[in-house]
Amino acid sequence: MAWNKSLAQKLLFTFSPENAHSLAIAALKMGLIKDLPAINDPRLRVKLWDLDFPNPLGMAAGFDKNAEVPDALLRLGFGAAEVGTLTPLAQPGNPKPRMFRLAKDEAVINRLGFNNEGHAPALHRLEQRKGNGGIVGVNVGANKDSEDRSADYVKGIETFASLASYFTINISSPNTPGLRDLQAREALDDLLGRCMDKRNEVTASAGRSVPVLLKIAPDVTEFGLDDICAVAIARGVDGMIVSNTTLDRYDSLKDVAQKSETGGLSGKPLFEKATIALAKTRQRVGPDMPLVGVGGVHDGISAIEKIRAGANLVQFYSSLVYGGPGMVRQMLVQMADYLSKVEATSLEDIRGQTTADWAAKELTME
Ligand SMILES: Cc1cc2nc3c(=O)[nH]c(=O)nc-3n(C[C@H](O)[C@H](O)[C@H](O)COP(=O)(O)O)c2cc1C
């Protein structure tokens, strides 16, 4: 089925956001969304760790929470798909409604609260696709009622070690009470110490490096970010993802009916804050640590700007709700056109060009 953006969008928007999401997953599962011709532009390739990303655009966590459609996402043109957040045990998440469209702002608010089927079904699905190729990251988290949250993350790394292209340690969801406390220096040091020990163990047994990335919130202070980056470096994490959703509510938001909903805000209005956090992170970790820029990416140019601000890779989710599946390919074309215009031969040529400008801005806005 070709995606007639306005028609399909109108139809999907007659459903609640969560039902529309379930329909999108079902359509991808059934192959109802047409595969698009791949964009193979060597200038867009990224080699990081032992992985060859065909392009820097990844599906951010939260869309495919249960690892149902990673291959269908890769066929839309994504260079990587991140599944999860997965917790060891299934959990229902918060009561519905818990996901809201701010259509006028091209934004989303969610307070899903790590609803997922748990490790076992996702493990089974990822085992089924083993050998398909493509980069599939596994985002791991902790059960709400867990007595030892760090142990849940370690368990995630252990469980998916032979199947994950990389891991994301998600301590930045605002919807699990106390989760963001894991970003505090001592708690983070303990968590990352245990996760990296497990990473070293599974790297030895898997016979390949299994990168572990830390995903952080944009709602951090300068000092908080100092601590997070210092611990991440000291513990040798392989990269960072900046950022998750924000608890900020900007005066500029037009969708006043929805903006007071509790939860994390994502989409276009997050771009500024998440990009500032990304650039400030880049300045703290130096040029070599791989960073993934996420938050408010909505076209090829905003994806390019994440790279100019210091990202090696880019992810997005919310704008897919508004742009539809064809937008991945369109974005890649726009990115390639941009590289031609500035006569760049690779993304490395433009990476970090605006880090200093973004990092000079204040993290707290409005
Ligand atoms: C409905 C929804 C669910 C999400 N669930 C997760 C999740 O389970 N784990 C996670 O790390 N991030 C989750 N995110 C955050 C996204 O991965 C991303 O970091 C954030 O939305 C910012 O990117 P965007 O502006 O492109 O959406 C979720 C976002 C949305 C909108």
Q: How would you characterize this protein structure?
A:
There is one protein chain. This protein has helices spanning 5-12, 17-29, 70-75, 119-128, 149-160, 185-206, 222-234, 256-259, 271-285, 300-308, 318-323, 327-341, 355-359; strands spanning 46-48, 51-53, 57-59, 80-86, 99-102, 107-110, 136-140, 166-170, 212-216, 239-242, 264-267, 291-294, 313-316. The chain has 366 residues and is an alpha/beta fold. The protein has one domain (33-359): TIM Barrel (Alpha-Beta Barrel), CATH 3.20.20.70. Helix 6 (185-206) runs parallel beside helix 7, helix 7 packs across helix 9 and helix 10 crosses helix 12. It is globular and about 50 Å long. It starts with a helix and ends in a 7-residue tail after the last helix.
CATH superfamily: Aldolase class I
Contiguous uncertain segments of 5+ residues: none
Amount of helix: 25-40%
CATH top level class name = Alpha Beta
User: What order do the helices and strands follow?
Assistant: HHEEEHEEEHEHEHEHEHEHEHEHHH
Ligand identities: flavin mononucleotide
Question: What is the element layout, followed by pairings?
Answer:
Layout: H1 5-12, H2 17-29, E1 46-48, E2 51-53, E3 57-59, H3 70-75, E4 80-86, E5 99-102, E6 107-110, H4 119-128, E7 136-140, H5 149-160, E8 166-170, H6 185-206, E9 212-216, H7 222-234, E10 239-242, H8 256-259, E11 264-267, H9 271-285, E12 291-294, H10 300-308, E13 313-316, H11 318-323, H12 327-341, H13 355-359
Parallel strand pairs: 3-4, 3-13, 4-7, 7-8, 8-9, 9-10, 10-12, 12-13
Antiparallel strand pairs: 1-2, 5-6, 6-11
The chain binds flavin mononucleotide.
